[in-house]
Amino acid sequence: MSWLIITEKQNAAERIATILFKDVKRMKKSKILYYYSPSSDAYVLGLKGHILELDFPKKFRSWTKTNLLELINAELIKEEKEKEIISLLRELAKNAERVTIATDYDREGELIGVEALEIISRDGLKVERAKFSAITKEEIIKAFQNPTQVDFNLAYSALARQKIDLIWGAVLTRFISLSSKRLGKDFLSVGRVQTPTLRLIVEREREIENFKPEKFYELFLDFENFTAKHPERYKDSEKAKEILSKIGDHVIVKNFSSTKKTEAKPIPFNTTEFLRASSIFMPPHMAMSIAENLYINGYISYPRTDNTVYPSSLNLKEIAKAFLDSDFSREAKIVLSQKEINPSRGKKETTDHPPIYPTAVASRKELSANEWKIYELIVRRFLATLAENAIWEIRSAELESNGIKFLASGRSLLKKGWREIYIYSKAEEVNLPLLRIGEKILIKNKRLEEKETKPPPRFSPATLIKLMEKLNLGTKSTRHEIIKKLLSRGYIDGNPYRPTQIAFSVIDVLKERAETITLPEMTAKLEEEMDKIAEGSKKEVEVVMESRRMLYEILRNIGEEKVAIKLKEGIKKDKIVGKCPKCGKDIVIRKSRIGKRFIGCTGYPECDFSLPLPQKGSIYISAKTCEEHGMRILKIKGKKTWSFCPICNYNEFLKSQKKS
Hints:
The chain has 660 residues and is of the alpha+beta class. It folds into five domains: 2-47 and 82-150, Rossmann fold (3-Layer(aba) Sandwich); 161-209 and 458-568, Orthogonal Bundle (Topoisomerase I, domain 2), CATH 1.10.460; 215-264 and 390-452, Topoisomerase I, domain 3; 271-386, Topoisomerase I, domain 4; 575-659, no CATH class. 39% of the residues lie in helices and 21% in strands. The protein contains 21 helices and 24 strands. Strand 23 and strand 24 form a beta hairpin. Helix 6 crosses helix 20 (560-574) and helix 16 (501-513) packs antiparallel against helix 20. The N and C termini lie far apart (74 Å). The mean pLDDT is 91.
């Protein structure tokens, strides 16, 4: 009787097999790779994530013929998603007396393992769970020598999320798309987490649009090698000029202080902090995808974690020593030259996985350019958390001229500490020389600067993920995917993120007719309920039923006709590209009789202005405007994504025609 090991992915299966067994044979059936050890009579099979898929029964598949209130309470079915893998799984499990689930240890991983067990479960089959946080020799051997039990409550919490997200997503997406008559590939999606996130972006954009800048005036004095600033702002320029005119040709130093300030090193990476930091290189979903590959290939620990405190079981000094002969030898020497290594600690401490840390030494040659960026970020962050704090000298001065006070400050880095390692945070020094109280200093220049108050900033990937975490929108494993979905559906674009016109329309109508859907409180409450399932204090069926009731009440009171009117108005606005240069009316994206898209004037037939458009790829009207022509920038998403102003693009086309 044999032993069957089930992993989440094929490349994880290969690594685990080669770590556990010396006589591994690579096997293949119907294009599916698996691994066999003759000496241990052990098989290792990698799945493709979820091999079962939740769906509605076939009678509910038609969007136009389905009653949405019935859809809410439809009994969901599980379908076999990966039929070839499932067939091989059944075959390998026939003669197995022992099965070890070695999927990723989190909610999704536990559910993937439980799905496999549902297919092969039988009386007498011994089931174990191998839990690990890194696919390294030490971790894998330890996990398989000390197996635990499958956590069914953890799996059921993931199943509850799957069911709730499917029901809410399907019902609300169909409702909005049918109301707006946006079907096919241009359907409008609505989601339990997606929609409150989109509302945050839309409302921030409204704040920016409605912001009215106010002018104010500030006074500055320039000296030989530093600058001082008057502590007050003035709304009245005449008042500011009056104060400036009273200043003499020198100042007297009234107070001066110099203190040392410690700047704490950064905390260890959890998923949120990692995604925020990596957003300087690439979108969050891409960073997570690369991190997962690095984990599976044994370079880093599991990247989906809330933990910001290294467990005592980690030998941090030994991990740092491994980098002495690497691209990070200088940084490792800085850490190891310390008398003691005291790692930084964040506020979140969990027991499932450690913070993200490097588990193997890699060179630039081994990894792609993007993989190296992520790997280097993780290595540098890890070493920085072990380094000493930075120390600054902070200088402050109070100056006076004819009774008018000015303040000056300076900062210089006395000890680099962690800043010598973590190169992503700039240390800006400001010069302020040593001054003596009572000293008279000649003013080189007096100036008044006119400034304006600034609107709140748009959300960057880093600031949006941080806010989503604060509001309990989504999880560490899903936030980057939510943002990716908003981008792919054409609701937002750019970096920082701007909402498109259709985003305004969808959020406005939902706020008016079903505001609960757009608020983070409802989503956060459901997240708490799913946590209770994982803890064992609530049943999956109970939480799913409660969410169905909540959705039923929302849909029953939403008012289909009013929603349809408002969405159609919004979609009409969403098609406006700009004003016609010939007649001043709106120009919009239109389709010809034979189905070709183009830009045409709404004043047709009186005005025949038109511009051609590319015929392939999904087209979106972005929130950005061409400064030269006042046209909205269009975005085409196909094999490649590119943006253009329709007039600039047409002018370039005409130039190329003349040259040819």
